[in-house]
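Running co-folding for cytidine-5'-diphosphate.
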Amino acid sequence: MTRFTVAIDGPAAAGKGTISKAVAAHFGFAHLDTGLLYRAVGAKVLTGVDPVRAAKALTAQDLGGDLRTPEVAQAASRVAVLPDVRAALVTFQRDFALREGGAVLDGRDIGTVICPDAQVKLFVTASAAVRAERRFLELLDKGLDVTREEVLADVIARDTRDRERAEAPLKPADDAVVIDTSDMNIEDAVGAAVAQVQKGLGLT
Ligand code: CDP
Ligand code: CDP
């Protein structure tokens, strides 16, 4: 096995990152959180930089700061509707997906647009209320001053924008396996994802 791509898509705070990291660790694959690319562009735009220019000039350094705030998330989803921003980020993602040794990419359009030929496609979801509560606890833990209502509003606004945009909207690929984590703990969600990858690898 040299090249093997796992595409994990889904709405905000569904558990994509957690599951992707665990799957990558389990199989020794590399992991790319593609949301970070859009967050980095969003963060640049908040400082006054043009979004397309920011996307074309993205460096590893831009991905290093604290991008996991609600303000940056909103800015990310606003720049993510722009076709030229998305186009500027495609090659990096596809190259990552085809690296030797296997790769897991998580985002919104991995199974539909970035890697339509991925060997395994998962669509990880959960109810908006569950996702907002998880993200709220996570942000509280980081010491951010947010309310439940604000976090729920952020999640719903981003999901709506991500689903309704013309370019690469959030939706499961026709051949994706849907994993609804509303009633699953992390261990069970990771177990369900690992089982799908084992199947994709022909191990079961
Ligand atoms: O990457 P994404 O935004 O989809 O979600 P995440 O950052 O992996 O997960 C959001 C939060 O939900 C994290 O704090 C996870 O620990 C938590 N989580 C959970 O409580 N139960 C799950 N089944 C999956 C994630
Ligand atoms: O962690 P969470 O699921 O809340 O968000 P994220 O994955 O970091 O993505 C932030 C925003 O970037 C999303 O709301 C999308 O608008 C955008 N995004 C996208 O359009 N395409 C991707 N492949 C990844 C993220």
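Result summary
The two ends are 16 Å apart (CA to CA).
The beta strands are 5-9, 30-33, 103-107, 120-125, 177-180.
Job closed.
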